[in-house]
Amino acid sequence: MSTSIATLNGDKRDLSDELTAKLEASLRGSLLRPESEGYDEARRIWNAMIDRRPALIARCAGGADVMRSVRFAAENHLLLAVRGAGHNIAGKGVYDDSFLIDLSRLRSVHVDPQRKIAWVEPGATLGDLDDETMAFGLATPVGINSTTGIAGLTLGGGFGWLSRKYGLTIDDLRSVNVVTAFEFELHDVNTEILSGPVIYPLSEGRQVLQHYRDFARDLPENLNVWAVLRKAPPFPFLPESAHGKEVVILAAAWFGDMESGKQSLKPLDSFGPVLGTGVGPHPFVGWQAAFDPLLTPGSRNYWKSHNFIDLADDLIDVALDYTARLPSDQTEIFFGRVGGAVNRIPVDATAYPHRDAEYVMNVHARWEQPSEDAKCVAWARKYFEATAPYATGGVYVNFVPDGEDPIESAYGPNQDRLVELKRKYDPTNLFRLNQNIRP
Ligand SMILES: Cc1cc2nc3c(=O)[nH]c(=O)nc-3n(C[C@H](O)[C@H](O)[C@H](O)COP(=O)(O)OP(=O)(O)OC[C@H]3O[C@@H](n4cnc5c(N)ncnc54)[C@H](O)[C@@H]3O)c2cc1C
User: Ligand 1 site: residues with CB under 6 angstroms?
Assistant: First the structure.
């Protein structure tokens, strides 16, 4: 018997059992074939739209396994996929017929509280990182769902609640061990923060979002407030009659002392008649996972994204119009506030070039049944097109759906330098199953 596997040339070859057995014997982790126990678990990713079957999966148990697996892929010219926590919306971590290097079991995080540095393995989730660093009242800016992977997040940029104060995840990345651990700078962050949502009915959306925009223009960097348009979850602090109705959620997180936070957040519930508010002291780690229940793995997802410098009145109207006809109960529109420390970094200092964006809009179309694919995808695409006139033209590489490789809009003026680096370090494009920069 042999293993039929895709190659870098676009065709397939048969790997002899002797060859795969030799690789298997060299690994501390395991080598999974389609018939192996654990194969389905190892190939399953966050977005249920994507269901791919690699030919072989190397479940690495450490750096040596990764080195041996990369060498094996290169020597045999195999189509190579690399998977961290598997959250990529386009499913870039898993490919049909490929050789998959699965890093998802490498989740250790080591913190040096004196030097404020964390060494993070590439399968760690944001929750793993927060859990370890918060034991010392430290954190680094990452995304807003605790189940997202640190590796893919960092490779694309990485922004979340702390970004206005401390920048992108990539801005705090100090070094990368090219086979395994990422080394991050840490910042003092209170283990308990003032945070939570203030919720308004959609009927008040126009004035609420206009007030939000004006308020957010001068936001102190200790504060982040995002606007989320969706159907209301059954929050205990909302009247039952509001559950499932379209709402505008202003989600706030304050990184400073509680009393000043209360003053700073005060205006947020004066933009109209509030339906309910969940603002209060919360554990930082809990807030970092607050959106997890809305973005659980296993649903079908199609995401689109734009960057904005400001929220124009017409853009607000389009967003409200599309929110009034959401294609599914789980679909939502996020306006994530960035700026602050993120935008003080020069455009050419890192691969991430969008240092002008004050908002990243993410359109999360989410649903359960394949029969709803066409309706939900069409809604997201139309909304994306309708909002394009107000956008910068740049796109955050981590929010690009499957089948699209907008390298120019993702990397802008940094593209040429990235091509040069790619030519130097990966001239055969062994690492191509990503938003690919071709050598
Ligand atoms: C629910 C949800 C919430 C999100 N929220 C945010 C947010 O708040 N802020 C934000 O910035 N982004 C956010 N994202 C986007 C997220 O950053 C990307 O989806 C990211 O790609 C996930 O990384 P991962 O390691 O889990 O993904 P994977 O699917 O495992 O990998 C993603 C890509 O990175 C490559 N890769 C992974 N590890 C390595 C490695 N060690 N070496 C080389 N290549 C590697 C893979 O080959 C693949 O191309 C969110 C995504 C989801 C699904």
Answer: 46, 82-89, 92-93, 103, 122, 143-145, 148-149, 151-153, 155-160, 295, 398, 433-434
